[in-house]
């Protein structure tokens, strides 16, 4: 959030920022495709079984070390080859996404930025591999904290470049400075994870690449996961293509809106997904259906308890929040209004995004990486169809609405399959509490609607006035939502006490 606030004020929303965000998406798309998709789905369960001695005779720490070294020795050359291929083919990639002639300014900026930033995928993919190893021994903090390094480096580069390169025409030069800062941050992130990996007792080292039976099995399991993740990432690239058909600033408006959308998704959905995969893998491996179902229900209920009010608040106060947080410098009130409209549509899919994050581990724990592929492909088809229908009439908010519709379809397909295969079925008491959470969130939304109207003059004022308005809206939301939730019985107090207790249940 701090990073994007500085981005907005220093760079604003224009062709250069559109180009930078577009280029930054590319390495992150492939990071999620190869690193998060493949290794979250396949590597963590296989590594955990060896570490815990449940994969066969002689397993344990040494077996886990050997397996991770074999994977690293094959994974690294693949990443180097992928990076080289894309560096060479980058003009074609940008041409497909930007739909601009090769000599256009809109083409030159994203091409340069993308070539500078793309090696980040190599570094951050290794970071994700190391994170999976640490997560397997329940050390989540190092892997959860490494993005902070990227944010700090980019903020320092933005502020430093803005000070060293003053003037109205410095936007392009600042863009190049922060592009070079991305791979530099990746190197620091890799060093951070390597330090903690050594502290955990692991000694990763490179060997001659060998396609051992276990590495081959990892590839067999991971490939469908990468394809499944690919459907979602293709969704991101298709969205980028549609945004490039609109007027300048469209990519930036979506980026700033998605930053507010990603805040609850990252804190709630991704955190829960990361935390429950090892636990689900353990219960599934022990054929403990009741334990796996309990973990899944707790994740859904806790996820919705926090996601539903975030969704309603961001939808009702979207423009107010964007104005308070991002408006200033080169990011004008008109930009804030446009971004607020996009945010209102985008967060309609936030509960679905969180549900997808907490349902997919139930398949991955069973080494089933194909089913999420089919669900993601269905969502992709629907997303493209609605983009075609909405784009000309609704512009960027239409693209956001299409994304939300696709997310709900994805979540629905995943849950139906879980039920049909008897992997998981939501209990009526849990569904009743979620329904009451929704009622409490609706009451909160009504209160926020009236409260934000009373504070209109504060949103674009000084920092003290903005902080006051933001604090007032948050206080209103917390009091009304949690007061109504407790009054309606939307919170299982015993379960919440168990979840936040320091003692292991």
What does the main sheet amount to?
A: none
Structural class: mainly alpha
SSE series: HHHHHHHHHHHHHHHHHH
Figure out the total of helices: 18
Indicate the low-confidence ranges by residue numbers: none
How many beta strands in the DSSP annotation?
0
Strand content: under 5%
What is the end-to-end distance?
35 Å
Helix proportion range:
over 70%
Which shape, going by the Cα principal axes?
globular
Q: Any idea what the radius of gyration is?
A: 23 Å
Q: How many distinct domains?
A: 2
Mean pLDDT: 85
Provide an overview of this structure:
The protein has 505 residues and is mainly α. It folds into two domains: 222 residues, no CATH class; 260 residues, no CATH class. It is 82% helix and 0% strand. It has 18 helices and no strands. Helix 2 runs parallel beside helix 9 and helix 4 packs parallel to helix 7. It is globular, with a radius of gyration of 23 Å. The mean pLDDT is 85.
At a glance:
This protein is an all-alpha fold and 505 residues long. Helix content is 82%, strand content 0%.
Topology:
Elements: H1 2-11, H2 15-51, H3 61-98, H4 105-117, H5 120-136, H6 141-164, H7 171-199, H8 213-244, H9 250-285, H10 289-316, H11 318-326, H12 333-346, H13 350-364, H14 371-394, H15 396-420, H16 428-454, H17 463-488, H18 493-500
Helix pairs in contact: 1-6, 2-3, 2-4, 2-5, 2-7, 2-8, 2-9, 3-4, 3-5, 3-8, 4-7, 5-6, 5-7, 6-7, 8-14, 9-10, 9-12, 9-13, 10-13, 10-16, 11-12, 12-15, 13-15, 14-15, 16-17
């Amino acid at each position: 959030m701090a990073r994007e606030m500085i981005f907005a004020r220093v760079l604003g929303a224009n062709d250069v920022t559109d180009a930078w965000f577009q280029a930054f998406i590319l390495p992150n798309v492939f990071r999620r495709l190869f690193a998060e998709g493949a290794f979250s789905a396949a590597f963590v369960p296989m590594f955990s079984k060896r570490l815990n001695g449940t994969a066969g005779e002689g397993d344990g720490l040494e077996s886990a070390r050997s397996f991770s070294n074999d994977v690293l020795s094959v994974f690294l050359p693949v990443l180097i080859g992928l990076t080289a291929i894309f560096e060479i083919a980058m003009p074609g990639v940008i041409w497909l996404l930007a739909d601009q002639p090769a000599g256009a300014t809109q083409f030159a900026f994203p091409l340069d930025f993308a070539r500078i930033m793309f090696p980040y995928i190599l570094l951050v993919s290794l970071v994700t591999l190391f994170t999976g190893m640490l997560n397997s021994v329940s050390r989540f903090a190092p892997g959860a904290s490494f993005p902070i390094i990227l944010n700090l480096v980019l903020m320092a580069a933005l502020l430093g470049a803005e000070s060293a390169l003053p003037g109205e025409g410095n936007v392009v030069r600042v863009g190049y400075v922060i592009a070079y800062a991305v791979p530099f941050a990746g190197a620091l992130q890799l060093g951070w994870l390597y330090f903690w990996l050594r502290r955990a007792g692991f000694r990763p080292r490179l060997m001659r690449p060998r396609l051992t039976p276990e590495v081959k099995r990892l590839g067999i399991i991971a490939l469908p996961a990468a394809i499944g993740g690919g459907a979602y990432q293709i969704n991101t690239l298709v969205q980028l293509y549609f945004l490039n058909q609109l007027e300048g600033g469209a990519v930036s408006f979506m980026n700033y809106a998605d930053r507010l959308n990603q805040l609850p998704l990252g804190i709630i959905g991704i955190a829960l997904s990361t935390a429950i995969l090892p636990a689900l893998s353990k219960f599934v491996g022990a054929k403990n259906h009741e334990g796996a179902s309990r973990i899944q229900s707790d994740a859904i209920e806790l996820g919705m308890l926090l996601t539903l009010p975030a969704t309603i608040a961001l939808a009702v106060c979207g423009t107010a929040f964007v104005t308070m947080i991002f408006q200033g410098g080169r990011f004008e009130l008109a930009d804030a209004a446009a971004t607020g409209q996009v945010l209102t549509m985008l967060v309609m899919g936030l509960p679905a995004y969180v549900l997808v994050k907490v349902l997919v581990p139930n398949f991955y724990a069973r080494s089933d990486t194909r089913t999420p592929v089919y669900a993601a492909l269905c969502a992709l088809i629907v997303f493209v169809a609605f983009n075609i229908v909405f784009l000309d009439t609704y512009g960027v908010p239409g693209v956001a609405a299409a994304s939300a519709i696709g997310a709900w379809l994805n979540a629905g397909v995943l849950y139906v399959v879980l039920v049909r295969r008897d992997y998981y079925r939501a209990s009526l008491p849990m569904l009743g509490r979620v329904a009451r959470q929704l009622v409490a969130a609706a009451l909160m939304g009504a209160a926020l609607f009236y409260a934000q109207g009373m504070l209109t003059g504060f949103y674009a004022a000084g920092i003290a006035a903005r902080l006051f308005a933001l604090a007032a809206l948050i206080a209103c939301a917390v009091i009304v939502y949690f007061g109504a939730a407790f009054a309606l019985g939307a919170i299982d107090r015993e379960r919440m006490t168990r979840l936040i207790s320091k003692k292991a249940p």
